[in-house]
Design a protein that fits this description.
Layout: E1 8-11, H1 26-37, E2 41-45, H2 50-56, E3 65-68, E4 73-76, E5 79-83, H3 88-98, E6 105-109, E7 114-117, H4 121-130, E8 134-137, E9 149-153, H5 158-161, H6 163-166, E10 174-177, E11 182-186, H7 192-203, E12 210-214, H8 220-223, E13 228-231, H9 237-242, E14 245-246, H10 254-263
Parallel strand pairs: 1-2, 1-12, 2-3, 7-8, 12-13, 13-14
Antiparallel strand pairs: 3-4, 4-5, 6-7, 6-9, 9-11, 10-11
């Protein structure tokens, strides 16, 4: 494995760079400074809200590119690079379908804030980990702002209890099981792979100059773009099948393990 050509590092957040306590290691920030000194571009790519990603990576926020909302929104410093919203007709159809699914919690995700219904204090508490800015509404149909993504949460399993009810949207939209409990619906071009491909074009990055780390199905498209795609040890089977390499788990600093090899 020859990492001498690497010019860009891209990593997912939850289950990848973040440990099970949803924190970033001090080791990573030390390694980031070495990446920066080598001129290697760092990209954080997550299903999380932009503000939430920036909060996790606050010490380096001015030196990185952020791909948020599964690729629906990307930004570097104050420059918005990509915005791919859902059309209102699709939002309306999705919300009607979600009304028929029991025990789920929906979030309408804008660029800088999100909206959810206030019918579960338990879910609202959970939401605070992933969304630093959100509003609780009586009716999500009242939202009239640009929406990038609709995220849906189930406390047991998104793959078992949400996906079967919404998979018919796949003919028109991107439907992604993005975590054990989360499923995301967005525009067909609002995914991490689309956003990363745009960045690769802008920075003239080739597949053998790129490292990508991921753990879940919403990482598949961006892993496919890299000769050095790494699945975490804790990754979904689909991710391990797609990635060319594996690394340690997120709780064993799997990303940092590979970055140590890179900076050497």
């Amino acid at each position: 494995m020859d990492l001498s050509k690497i010019k860009m590092v891209v990593t997912d957040m939850d289950g990848t760079l973040l440990n099970s306590d949803h924190t970033v290691s001090n080791q990573f920030f030390t390694l980031f400074e070495k990446l920066k000194s080598k001129g290697i571009v760092f990209v954080a790519a997550s299903g999380r809200q932009y503000n939430s990603i920036v909060e996790k990576l606050h010490p380096i926020k001015d030196d990185i590119i952020v791909i948020a909302e599964n690729g629906g929104f990307a930004k570097k410093q104050e420059t918005e690079l990509i915005t791919t919203p859902l059309v209102k007709e699709h939002i309306s159809k999705i919300l009607k379908t979600l009304d028929q699914i029991p025990n789920i919690h929906a979030v309408l995700c804008g660029k800088y804030t999100a909206f959810t219904a206030g019918n579960s204090a338990k879910f609202t508490q959970k939401l605070k980990e992933y969304y630093t800015e959100f509003q609780i509404l009586d009716n999500l149909k009242d939202v009239d702002l640009e929406i990038i993504k609709i995220a849906i949460y189930h406390f047991e399993s998104s793959e078992a209890h949400i996906y079967p009810f919404v998979k018919h949207f796949e003919k028109d939209l991107k439907v992604k099981v993005s975590g054990e409990n989360w499923l995301d619906i967005s525009s067909n071009n609002a995914h991490k792979g689309y956003a990363l491909k745009k960045l690769m074009q802008n920075y003239n990055i080739k597949s053998d100059e790129l490292i990508v780390f991921g753990d879940y199905n919403n990482d598949l498209e961006m892993l496919a773009l890299s000769d050095y795609g790494f699945a975490m040890a804790n990754a979904h089977p689909n991710v391990k099948k797609m990635a060319n390499y594996t690394t340690l788990s997120n709780d064993e600093n799997g990303v940092e393990h590979i970055l140590e090899l890179l900076v050497k």
